[in-house]
Structure formats: C-alpha cells, structure tokens
Amino acid sequence: MPPGRAMWVWMHEAAPPDPAAVAAFAVQQRVTEAFVSVPWGGPTPATQRQVAALRGEGVRVSALGGDPSWTTGDDAVTWMRRATAALLFQGVHLDIEPWTRRDWPGRERALLDALARTVRDVAARTSLPVEVDLAPWLAQAHPREFRDVVARADAVTLMAYRDRASDILASSASARRVIAGARRPYRIGVETGAVAEPEPTAAQTFADEGRAVLERELAEVAARLAGDTRFAGIAVHDVEGWLALRP
Fold first, then answer.
1. % helix / strand / coil in the chain, to the nearest 5?
2. Distance CA 134, CA 149 (A)
C-alpha cells in the first residue's frame, strides 16, 4: 500500500469546520490521518463530533496541539493528558515550533534541547505514538539538536513549505538523512494557506497555485520518495486552505 495522506484540522473555537464536510473531503482526497486540534481544556463537543465523523470514514485521528511556550515546562504533558483522557484519539501530534519564539535568536540550542525533553516527557506519559512537527532547515543549522528531537519522537512531519517538488525535496534532504539515521518514519508537510514569512509567500504555499498544481507536485514528491521505506506520505496544512484552493 502506498503512503497515505494526512492533514491538519484546526478547530477554531468561534467557527469550527463542519464535521461531515471535513470527513467527506478527507475521503475525496485520500486522507488516511487527520491531526485535529484540541484546546487547552480538552476535547469540546465540536472536537468530539469532528473526530467521530473522521473515524466513521476510516480516517485515523491524532490529537493536535502546541504552542512555542510549551518548549519548556510541563504544559505539553498537561495538555496531552487532557486531550487523550476520553480515548478519542489514536496518536498525539505536537506543533510547538520554538523557532518562532521572540527569544529564539541566541538561545537556539537551549530551546531545541528543551523541545527534545518536552517530546520525551510527552511520549513517556502516553501509550499513543507521538509525532512532532519540525522545520527541515534545523537539520543543517543545528544537526545535533535536530537529531535529539527526532530520536525522542515516534515520527516526524517535516514542514517543507515550498510549492515545487524539486524545492520540497532539496529543502528537506538533510533532514531526511538525519531521520533515516534515527530510523524514524516521516511525512513531508506542505502549505496551502497564506504564509507570513520574510520570503515571498508564493514560494512557500500552494495558495496561489490551485489544486491541480498541488496534485502534480505532490505526485512527483511521492514518486521520488517511493523507494524510501521511512517515507510515510504527505501532510497538507491545512484543511481550510486546501478546501479553498481553486481547481
């Protein structure tokens, strides 16, 4: 069986997505796993409806959560325990991203070491598999720390946010080599929404390209990585942006 697709589903409190529509879209797009966000206080009725709709279509669902402040302290463990207490989920997906913190410059190594400890602590307190989002460039800028974070997780999603297969593969190459050495499965993450970064948004997201270009480039990525036994598929950020793409 070829690697499946995954997608992030952010459950915005004021206007959560329609559970049936998200589940139907998952089936249409051959999504086999969804990362569904869970608020700090634990699953809400909206969370439960979304998880039920997805699992009813055979989609595996992981509890999604994270904040740069969770890099240190016990917040990630506290959130995980609340998120998974009701036995809704089949995995935990951490999106902490300490490199977005204001104090990142000058503290890079210390913060990545702290992220590794946080991932370790979450994994030690749940029987569910724990996957973590990582930016591929960390493997080159901070190879030892990147390797340590990878080693603490059960799987990794590389946020290789580019809009051409060649750039996706090139930007993730170093990270994929590290992950291979750690013997961890990984996904390649791509973006479909607006990106607020110093680089031109057009280079990092499929938002201005449309669904046909997304499918073309993802097919090439999947074909190029078909021989990599660690490749677990593509992850699309996020369902809202993906739904909004033009044909």
1. 45, 20, 35
2. 9
Residue identified by tokens 């569904």 is: 36
Report helix angle 108-124 to 143-152, nearest 10.
Answer: 10
- Residue pLDDT, tens place only, 48-96: 999 999 999 999 999 999 999 999 999 999 999 999 999 999 999 999 9
Residues ≥6 apart with Cβ < 8 Å to 147: 139, 178, 181, 182
Q: In this predicted model, which residue has the larger pLDDT, 116 or 203?
A: 116
Residues 58, 174: Cα–Cα separation, whole Å: 34
How many CB atoms within 10 Å of residue 158? Answer: 24
Mean pLDDT across 96-101: 98
What tokens appear for 43 in the block? 């699953």
Q: Is the pTM of this model over 0.85?
A: yes
Amino acid at 166: S
Q: Which of 237, 240, 244 is nearest to 64 (CA)?
A: 237
Q: Above pLDDT 90, what percent of the chain?
A: 94
Distance CA 188, CA 175 (A): 11
Euclidean distance between CA atoms 175 and 136, whole angstroms: 5
